[in-house]
Specification:
The structure is a single chain. The chain is of the alpha/beta class. It has three domains: 85 residues, Winged helix-like DNA-binding domain superfamily/Winged helix DNA-binding domain (Arc Repressor Mutant, subunit A); 94 residues, 3-Layer(aba) Sandwich (D-Maltodextrin-Binding Protein, domain 2); 100 residues, D-Maltodextrin-Binding Protein, domain 2. Helix content is 42%, strand content 24%. The protein has a six-stranded mixed beta sheet, with helices on both faces. Strands 1-2 form a two-stranded antiparallel ribbon. It has a two-stranded parallel sheet with strand order 7-8. β7, α8 and β8 form a beta-alpha-beta unit. The radius of gyration is 24 Å and the shape is elongated. The termini are far apart.
Length: 298
């Protein structure tokens, strides 16, 4: 049969996608509310229609074949297009989406995140901005499921199965060390040697920013006394304002941090920056808010 005359059962493609995501007929049947036998038959029929084996069946579940992984790429894109129809038609046929859902990585400084989000807010006009905060892993999963339109993150580490996603570098914000008004003056004297043994608030262990700060400290020959680690930068600033210790923040948000938390600059963290990435997926119709986020400056 000529390729142009072949017909694909898109319901079966949906079923295939769920089985591929869950790795199990039993789990997929629960999600789809179909009998396991019925679901199995649909997958077999899809394999027959394509003339290819999509799964390796085993005692531990369903594993995609190389061909199955290729088909999953198309299945994810077809699913994305279906979701895009609903988003595009929200508020009236032919009008651009008026609601932008942004996932913000929980460790990303919120003052910096807002500076990045401001252009997108303007692009929405009278539309609505919705922000959801979670771990990068959770947000990437939400992006793949089209729960969020874009993810703001402090790292471009994407899972190996993040089909069709890409990370756009938005901004590099140099860091500086800050402390409360009681601690800052003593730390400014003899900086950066003054940080040796100083009570310090650090990002969570294992994060890219923490590795960069540890390397900076080693490079200048100081060993701060880490009294607390934070994934939430806003909570860290609150602790810093209470005199718990010194911390590093983007220079770009120093004035806001001084106004809101009473923090004072101690010295530069030369060579270390907080990078902000926008993680996006493929879209046939560009969301104006996402376009504003990733547009080059100028």
């Amino acid at each position: 049969m000529p390729t142009s005359d072949r017909w694909l059962n898109y319901h079966q493609l949906i079923y295939f996608r769920v089985v591929a995501r869950t790795g199990s007929l039993a789990r997929a049947s629960g999600e789809l509310r179909l009998a396991v036998q019925t679901l199995s038959e649909h997958v077999l029929q899809l394999e027959s229609a394509l003339g290819e084996t999509l799964f390796v069946r085993g005692s531990r579940g369903m594993t995609l074949t190389d061909t199955g992984r290729v088909v999953l790429v198309f299945a994810e894109e077809i699913h994305a297009l279906g979701q895009e129809i609903f988003r595009t038609l929200e508020g009236g046929a032919g009008r651009a989406p008026g609601r932008l859902v942004v996932g913000v990585e929980d460790s990303l400084p919120k003052l910096l995140a807002w500076q990045v989000l401001a252009p997108a807010m303007k692009a929405l006009g009278g539309g609505q901005l919705v922000c959801r905060e979670a771990s990068l892993e959770q947000l990437v999963e939400q992006l793949r499921a089209h729960v969020v339109d874009v993810v703001l993150a402090g790292a471009d580490d994407l899972p190996t199965d993040a089909v069709g996603l890409r990370a756009e570098r938005l901004r590099d914000a140099p860091l500086c060390w800050v402390a409360d008004a009681a601690l800052a003056p003593s730390l400014r004297k003899g900086f950066p040697a003054s940080l040796d043994g100083a009570p310090t608030l650090m990002p969570a262990s294992g994060s890219a920013l923490r590795r960069a700060l540890d390397a900076w400290c080693a490079g200048v020959g100081v060993t701060p006394r880490v009294v607390a680690e934070f994934s939430d930068s806003a909570l860290a600033k609150t602790a810093c304002a209470e005199g718990v210790g010194v911390m590093a923040i983007p220079e770009a948000v120093l004035s806001q941090a001084a106004h809101r938390y009473g923090l004072e600059r101690v010295g530069p963290c030369t060579g270390v920056s907080q990078t902000v990435y926008a993680i996006v997926g493929p879209r046939r119709i560009a969301h104006p808010g996402v376009s504003a986020l990733v547009a080059p400056p100028g």
